[in-house]
Amino acid sequence: MPLILALYVLALVTFATVSNGWGPLHHDMTEAWAWGKEFQLGYAKHPPFTAWLVGLWFAVMPRTNWSFYLLSGLNVGLALAGVWMLASIFLGTFGRMASILFLMLTPSFSLWALKFNVNAPLISTWPWTTYFFLRSLETRRIDFSLLAGLAGAIALLTKYYSLALFATLLLVAVLHPDRRRYFTSAAPYLTNTIGLLTVAPHAWWTIAAGFPTIDYAISKTEFAAEFARATSIKTIASAIATLGIAAGSYAFAFGKAQSVILLRNSVKATFNVKNAWLTCLAHGPLLLTIAAHVFANARITTGFLLPAFFALPTVFLVLSRADVNVAVAHRLVFCVGALWLAVVAASPLIAYYDFAFGNQANVEPRREVVVEATRLWNDTFGKPLRYVSGEVALATAVTFYSSDSPSYFIHHKPEYSPWVTVAHANKEGVLFICRESTDWCIGSAATYAGPTAIRSTHEVITHFLGRAGRPHRFVLIMRPPG
What we know:
65% helix
């Protein structure tokens, strides 16, 4: 397992670095850094764990694209190790291998997870939380109970969506054959106590800050019902469809036995009440997410479903009593190896195609304009750039790519960036960066910067393998120090 995971992480990082490393990081990733470099108990949009993780990572690693993708890859490796441990409760070595190999063929544990935003750590925290919880449920041991509470708290501090996992695990406990012994033991109360104690500092911050993260979560339920429904249906259908390659690989690996396995899984899942807790474990996160849309009008996006299928292959193998032997394992290894060798080999072509014909947001010369903006500030004022504001994607890119590593200042809502006061930002000066086409950003920046502001427009072009990209124009507005 360690060798398989190491090779898989290497393949992921290589693919990401070659196919995307020449361009700017996704703005969710640079925003995570902009928050993480300023340690807080919470942030304007989300709980703090993802930002903490990114901040700690770049405290010891260079701020480069490949380094960020390495963090993404290691997170996937940790997630698959958690699935391995979860599967070890039910399955032997080859069954555990089949569980993680299935997930390697899904975008949730590969391509989608390379964008290290607030959803990405869920794929690693959910399996480990579930593993410790099930071990606590079965053994009622203190160590597993405490670890379940700690892992669950980390999952909640990553994103409040982890409440869907908690509801699933509660149903699992209620349906489990050992539920009486579990709920009459100290285990669940130890788990909840350590979880609440771990979350308490963030809860205190949330109350003191006026519940910004709660307001942001609620805002995801305020879309028009028709729009939320269309988006959610499309997302759910696409997420289920992405399991097709992995399901096809299982069909190839099990050969003629696949029909018997499918029938046995369906019968056991549908008609055997004793296995209801396993069915809930596999499908609970998805069904509860759908329920959040139906009853609360939550708009479901791809990020919501990133960790939703982590227990699916394990439960499928358990309920079907599939004979996962060495031949089956070898066939699955062949499928994973063939797919990822092809993907890695094609990564230079993907990079060139994306640059030439892909989404313009992917080729926007953010790094180039950051270098130009930093040089302009240093030449104009003879001092390092300390604060940057403007459009989120551009301003947070400055915090990541600038050699001065400035802090992100949210000038229109200063309470969202409490690591700097308005007075101190005005004393040190602020650089505002906007796309030329965004009048709202330019107008807001010009109003804040005042009559002494220095404004300039820059046209920047990305070059890749001798080809020039489309020119992009940016407006830089500098409020002088003092």
